[in-house]
Specification:
The complex is a heterodimer of chains A (230) and B (394).
Chain A: E1 2-13, E2 16-28, E3 33-37, H1 44-51, E4 59-64, E5 67-68, H2 74-84, E6 85-88, H3 100-110, H4 115-128, H5 144-156, E7 162-166, H6 174-189, E8 193-197, H7 201-204, E9 209-214, E10 217-223, H8 226-229
Parallel strand pairs in A: 3-8, 3-9, 6-7, 7-8
Antiparallel strand pairs in A: 1-2, 1-4, 4-5, 9-10
Chain B: H1 2-11, H2 13-49, E1 55-60, H3 81-87, E2 93-108, E3 111-120, H4 124-128, E4 132-135, E5 149-152, H5 154-161, E6 170-173, E7 176-184, E8 189-190, E9 193-194, E10 198-202, H6 203-210, E11 217-222, H7 228-243, E12 248-252, H8 253-296, H9 298-306, H10 311-347, H11 357-384, H12 387-392
Helix pairs in contact in B: 1-10, 2-8, 2-10, 2-11, 8-10, 8-11, 10-11
Classes of the chains: A alpha/beta (230), B alpha+beta (394).
Chain lengths: 230, 394
């Protein structure tokens, strides 16, 4: 459960102030599947960063599962990111010197889980994203779609509540892109909240709830009725 | 975490190897140079302790704070054989050696040889741990009027008598006739002085031979565990009362060893510090590589932060890498340095080399510490990055 109230984010660029987010209110229930669309510079990515606790708002209130995150210190935020939030990026952000399995294992290492419990989890999730035979390949030996599937596996291995995807298909051909979206939808079906920021209307339109942003503000927030979504 | 750091180091093999090499050379230099320094230290110390350590030396003339002796100006009463006899009666004293030294010509038949003459008291072998090969040492005669007998060093005996036994033979020392009563065991050299090309005469005869008024030195052997300060004080009191003033210098073997030890310690430290300079250069190498590494991996830092890494974990990761580089270099340097020291031992046995075990721990700790210090600034920079900006860097 995510609740944003009057979120502002102001950047100082030279001696000018840029208002990237302007009094944004947004509530997301757990298990939702929503897309955020809008032109470049509309504040989509800033909103995503704030939702992912990578960035803090200049003012406003962000409650995550009933807890106010704006009062938390850096270590608390890092722990919540590790436990509750998974990230998928446009450029995958895999570590080139590590194998697919090792990349997937990273969040568990950072959470200081014991190696004995890490291995089975990695195996299970590799199976789920269909990359068991690619476990020991390095990212440069994988296709774009495979890389993004590794990234999704890494984002979900800690069983987070929310998956935040920033242009997840922006760097993929349409076939791999569709596979990646399908994978995220499957995860959503099993209860994961999925939020996709995208330029691509084909991707954005699949989500039952669509948010449109312009100039740092939410200008449309539409939800398909259940019978339409099906 | 350890494996993450290891993987980061092994990913750039050449770069890591070169960085490691810097530290390796530094540690190599430190270990080798201090090994040589320590070897020389031990060598010199053992040269000096071969005569025993429970010895107090008394020399005429009072050493002033300037280090010069007022004995030079002649206002000193000579150290006499009577002084030595008086000192013999002090508590804790086990033996007293009166000593006068010079050069004289020794003749046996047609053979003659110039050699070092020691005028000593009969306690000499006991005090300085010399052994007698045949016959006996100087007999305990009246020290003021001893018989004209002599004891030969092993080399002198060999040179003058070839294969004959010298005991009982008559020789001339500086023109006076002496009877040989014994031959010493070989003792070797001390700092280049041949201790076997010598002849020992009674001290009183030595004084006559060289025309001296006083002894050059009195050496006192004291019992093990004697209270040294008390003994030195009683020696000083006795000589002041006999001479009417303090005109001698009393040096315990311990003092000598301490001074010598500290001089040699400084030497070892100095050569070690020379090696330390290259270690410093190695540290700078680690610093620059870590700085490059952090800026290259900015987006990786952003990713790790997004995946739940706290600032502390980022700091640990990069510090770990720096320390790993340094520790690996240190280890390589230790192996090289130890190997080098062993090689010197093999090739140049006369050059004393010694690597104490604790050096190895100190050197490796120093390497790791250098890695830590060199890594702190880059690691802190990595930890201080904001996740959003770090992720944006591609």
């Amino acid at each position: 459960m995510i609740r944003l109230e009057k979120i502002n984010r102001i950047f100082q660029v030279g001696d000018q102030q840029v208002r990237a987010l302007n009094d944004v209110d947004l509530t997301i229930s757990s298990g939702e599947y929503l897309s955020i669309m809008g032109p470049s510079g509309s504040g989509k990515s800033t909103l995503l960063n704030i939702l992912g606790l990578l960035d803090q708002p200049s003012s406003g209130k962000y409650q995550l599962d009933g807890r106010d995150t704006t009062q938390m210190d850096d270590e608390q935020l890092a722990r919540i990111r590790g436990r509750k939030i998974g990230f998928v990026f446009q450029f995958f952000h895999l570590i080139g010197r590590l194998s697919a399995a090792e990349n997937i294992e990273l969040p568990l290492i950072l959470a200081e889980e014991a190696p004995v419990t890490r291995k089975p989890k990695v195996q299970e999730i590799l199976h789920r994203v269909g990359l068991e035979d690619r476990a020991n390949h390095r990212p440069d030996q994988l296709s774009g779609g495979q890389r993004q599937r590794v990234a999704i596996a890494r984002a979900t291995i800690t069983r987070p509540d929310v998956l935040l995807a920033d242009e997840p298909t922006g760097n993929l051909d349409s076939v791999s892109g569709a596979e990646v979206i399908q994978l995220m939808e499957t995860l959503n079906d099993s209860g994961l909240t999925v939020l996709i920021v995208t330029h691509d209307p084909n991707v954005g339109d699949r989500a039952p709830r669509k948010i449109k942003m312009i100039d740092g503000a939410i200008v449309a927030d539409t939800t398909k009725r259940a019978d339409e979504a099906a | 975490m350890v494996r993450l750091a290891t993987r980061a180091v092994t990913a750039h093999r050449l770069r890591s190897a070169l960085t490691t090499l810097g530290i390796a050379i530094g540690i190599f230099a430190v270990v080798l140079l201090t090994s040589i320094g320590e070897g020389i230290h031990r060598f010199v110390m053992s040269e000096f302790t071969q005569f025993g350590t429970n010895i107090i030396a008394i020399n005429p003339g009072k050493a002033t704070t300037m280090g010069a002796s007022i004995g030079v100006f002649g206002s000193v009463r000579p150290l006499s054989i009577d002084d030595a006899e008086a000192l013999r009666r002090l508590p804790y004293v086990e033996g007293v050696v009166t000593m006068v030294q010079g050069n004289a010509e020794i003749k046996f038949g047609r053979l003659q040889r110039r050699t070092t003459v020691y005028g000593v008291s009969p306690d000499f072998p006991q005090v300085f741990r010399f052994d007698i090969a045949s016959g006996s040492f100087l007999p305990p005669d009246d020290p003021r009027n001893p018989r004209a007998v002599a004891v030969l060093g092993s080399k002198l005996a060999r040179e003058l008598f070839l294969k004959e036994s010298p005991v009982g033979a008559r020789i001339r020392v500086g023109g006076d006739r002496y009877r040989v009563v014994g031959v010493m065991e070989p003792k070797g050299t001390m700092l280049g002085f041949d201790l076997d090309d010598t002849i020992f005469l009674p001290a009183a005869r030595g004084l006559d031979l060289f025309g001296r008024e006083g002894l050059m030195e009195i050496d006192i052997l004291y019992v093990e565990n004697a209270p040294i300060d008390e003994l030195v004080a009683s020696i000083r009191r006795m000589l002041i009362s006999r001479h009417g003033g303090e005109d001698v210098t009393i040096t315990t073997q311990q003092q000598m060893m301490d001074v010598l030890g500290s001089v040699l310690g400084v030497l070892t430290f100095a050569v070690g510090a020379l090696g330390g300079i290259s270690l410093l250069v190695g540290g700078v190498g680690i610093y620059s590589i870590m700085t490059i590494s952090v800026s290259e991996r900015t987006s990786e830092v952003g990713l790790l932060r997004a995946l739940g890494a706290g600032k502390g974990q980022i700091l640990t990761l990069f510090l770990g890498e720096a320390m790993l580089l340094a520790a690996a270099g240190g280890f390589a340097g230790l192996v090289l340095g130890w190997g080098g020291a062993s090689l010197i031992n093999q090739l140049l046995p006369s050059l004393p080399v010694h690597t104490p075990l604790y050096f190895i721990f100190v050197a490796e700790s120093a390497a790791i510490l250098i890695g830590l210090v060199a890594g702190v600034a880059p690691a802190r920079r990595a930890a201080a990055m904001t996740p959003v900006e770090a992720l944006r860097t591609e």
